[in-house]
Amino acid sequence: MESKEEILRIIDVLNDTYESEEAWYGPSVVEALRDVTPKMAETRLSANTHSIAEIVYHMTTWRIFAVRKLQGDAEFDIKTQDKDWKKFPVVDEFEWEAIQMELSLSQEELVSELEKVADDSFLEEFVPGRDYSYYTMIHGVIQHDVYHAGQIGLIKKAAKAMRLEEDDDYGAYGDRSDYDNSADYY
User: Fold this and answer.
1) pTM of the prediction?
2) End-to-end CA distance of the chain
3) What sequence ranges are listed for the domain DinB-like (predicted)?
């Protein structure tokens, strides 16, 4: 019987990066998204940057890509800009909840697909339609999360610096006491 130890370790790291309160590098994705209001989610720091809503959509898109590849779908791809970086000019409460729920569901589906893998040798196989292994793809999702969690944190911090929190839509975000130690992370 083959071992599944590496896959189980990868699932642990994937979950820690996504939702742990003790990720060693700083806030997990879920922590980074905590207290992000719809108004903050739609905010762009400049014309050539993405909003938090767009980043979360993008993260979901690539999780779905990984799931489809784990399912053996060689044809699935992300070929259009709108499929990868959907624009959200206005984000209301319902849409922001939906965007976050889709991310959460894609995380659950990704972990579920990995749990189905029989043994670690699967990680050495090449992803259908790609020139890299499943090992590389899954670690890419983890690295992608760390990168974008950092971006989300920076956008939140910049929004605070821009004093956007004065708008009532930011709710408790205007309370700076929760963010006094955040400089250690970004």
Assistant:
1) 0.86
2) 45
3) 30-152
Fold (topology level) of 5-184: Four Helix Bundle (Hemerythrin (Met), subunit A) (1.20.120)
Alpha carbons within 13 A on the beta-carbon side of 6 = 14
Q: How far from chain centre, in Å, is Cα 104?
A: 9
Token pair of 21 as six digits? 């309160």
Judge contact between 141 and 62, C-beta under 8 A.
yes
Does the pLDDT of residue 124 top 50, yes or no?
A: yes
pLDDT in tens, 49-100: 999 999 999 999 999 999 999 999 999 999 888 889 999 888 999 999 999 9
Helix/strand/coil (H/E/C) assignment for every residue in 45-90 = CCCCCCCHHHHHHHHHHHHHHHHHHHCCCCCCCCCCHHHHCCCCCC
Domain locations in the chain?
A: 5-184
Half-sphere exposure of 91 (CA within 13 A, CB side): 25
Residue showing tokens 């992370």? 185
Q: Is the dihedral of CA 10, 16, 22, 26 positive or negative?
A: positive
Task: Assign 1 a pLDDT band (cuts: 50, 70, 90).
Answer: low
Token reading at 163 = 């004093």
Closest CA to 64 of 73, 53, 51, 54: 73
